[in-house]
Write a structure and sequence with these properties.
Keywords: Heme, Iron, Metal-binding, Monooxygenase, Oxidoreductase. This is Cytochrome P450. Belongs to the cytochrome P450 family. The protein has a single domain, classed as Cytochrome P450 (Cytochrome p450, Orthogonal Bundle), CATH 1.10.630. α6 packs antiparallel against α10 and α8 crosses α10. It is globular, with a radius of gyration of 20 Å. 51% of the residues lie in helices and 12% in strands. The chain is α+β, with helices and mostly antiparallel strands. A six-stranded mixed beta sheet has the order 1-2-3-9-6-4. The structure holds protoporphyrin IX containing FE. Protoporphyrin IX containing FE binds next to α6, α10 and α13.
């Protein structure tokens, strides 16, 4: 099977395509990049923690790259997700536990977005994205970073510029310059926050410790900061939106909160692929993949693999563990905060019997990441 991760998928039946990819397992190729795509649940689960793959880009000839592209590369290598080995392990030691559970105040604020939307839009059409998914995601990031609402919105704008390049392959120097400029803005913010001792959350304390760690330093703290805001906002918005879309499903109202949240995560799988590189020759379905080959582990396809999840596109019960948060040494550090926020939303919706019925849903063209541009509808 062939896919083209650069094509426009906004009008495609993406879940059907991902389920078909899962059937093809490791027989999927990306026509634009030539990457090997691994898509069955068993293969993805097996390879996520396997040291035959690394998240770190192998050394390559950079002599033809423009200065702005080189600056961008230099910035990305410091991110937790694009690093490996001792550097990543040290970074992870600082960050582990620094993005923990959300406290009751934050959970109440999250639930209040839903009750307020129910009061304010009792009978009119409203945007689920603007009224619930986006403000809740801002609240979660604000809680982790300890930033004000306004500051968090500003940080999220910078994260969006960076994510656009990662998810939708910006290919010109102007686009790359935008990423470098966004990164520089976050660097200034972080420098001021660390200098003025704005260390009100465990996450900011961890960034301060990373910055002062002689083997890591400020650029590592900046990488962790940029990765966190970029990796948190869009997938949260997507998952919360899928939660809204599923709330009209007949079995939603009677579901048990934790199980529903896991199904929301499985069915949304906001990051549909996670990137790795082969560290040695790997045999996949009798084919040998040479070292340094780029391998996309299909989290989205794996989560819709019918051999692991019968009737994969349906809201199910008591499913096995999904892979929406990846796995191995790069397993998502925000997973528990995400689960807390989804449970708060499911809790308030099932308690009051709220269900959202969408009338206009528009997807972003990207296959790599689930994103919505419009989600309008009303309470049922
Ligand atoms: C629904 C929301 C989210 C989803 C689906 C998600 C998914 C993921 C995935 C797939 C990875 C890569 C794992 C791998 O390649 O094995 C990852 C890494 C990461 N995530 Fe999340 N994420 C979400 C929200 C968050 C939030 C809210 C935060 C923090 C506030 C966060 C912080 C991170 C960090 C720091 C990493 C890098 C870990 C490392 O490389 O060591 N994520 N996430």
């Amino acid at each position: 099977m062939l896919i083209d991760t650069m094509a426009d998928y906004s009008t495609e039946d993406v879940p059907a395509l991902l389920a078909e990819a899962a059937r093809s397992g490791s027989g999927v190729h990306d026509t634009t990049t030539g990457d090997v795509v691994v898509a069955s649940y068993a293969e993805v689960r097996g390879l996520l923690p396997d040291r035959c793959l690394t998240t770190k880009r192998p050394p390559s000839d950079t002599s033809g790259l423009s200065p702005v592209r080189l600056a961008m590369r230099k910035f990305y290598v410091k991110w937790p997700l694009f690093s490996d080995g001792d550097y990543h392990a040290r970074l992870r030691t600082h960050l582990q536990g620094a993005i923990g559970r959300l406290d009751d105040d934050v959970l109440s604020r999250i639930a209040a977005h839903v009750t307020r939307a129910h009061q304010n839009h009792a009978s009119d059409t409203f945007s689920w994205l603007k009224t619930i998914s986006e403000p809740v995601s801002v609240d979660v990031i604000a809680a982790v970073v300890g930033s004000s609402g306004e500051e968090t919105e500003w940080l999220v704008e910078k994260a969006k510029v960076i994510l656009e390049e990662l998810a939708w392959q910006v290919t010109d120097d102007e686009g790359f310059a935008g990423v470098v400029s966004a990164m520089e803005s976050v660097a200034q913010w972080l420098d001021a926050a660390l200098t003025h001792g704005r260390l009100t959350t465990p996450f900011m304390k961890a960034l301060s410790a990373i910055s002062q760690d002689a083997e890591l330093g400020f650029d590592a703290a900046l990488g962790a900061m940029c990765q966190t805001i970029t990796g948190a906002y869009d997938p949260l918005v997507a998952a919360i939106t899928v939660l809204g879309l599923l709330s009209a499903h007949p079995s939603f109202a009677h579901g048990e909160s934790a199980g529903l949240c896991e199904e929301v995560l499985r069915l949304s799988s906001p990051f549909r692929f996670t990137r790795r590189f082969a560290t040695r020759p790997i045999e996949l379905k009798g084919r040998v993949i040479p070292p340094h080959t780029r391998v996309l582990l299909g989290l989205g396809p794996a989560n819709l693999d019918e051999t692991a999840f019968p009737e994969p596109t349906e809201l199910g019960k008591e499913r096995r563990a999904h892979v929406a948060f990846g796995g191995g040494s790069h397993y998502c550090l925000g997973a528990e905060a995400v689960r807390d926020s989804l449970r708060a939303l499911v809790g308030v919706m099932t308690e009051h019997g709220f269900a959202f019925e969408a009338s206009n849903v528009v997807h972003h063209p990207s296959l790599a990441i689930l994103r919505f541009t419009t989600v309008d509808g009303r309470w049922r």
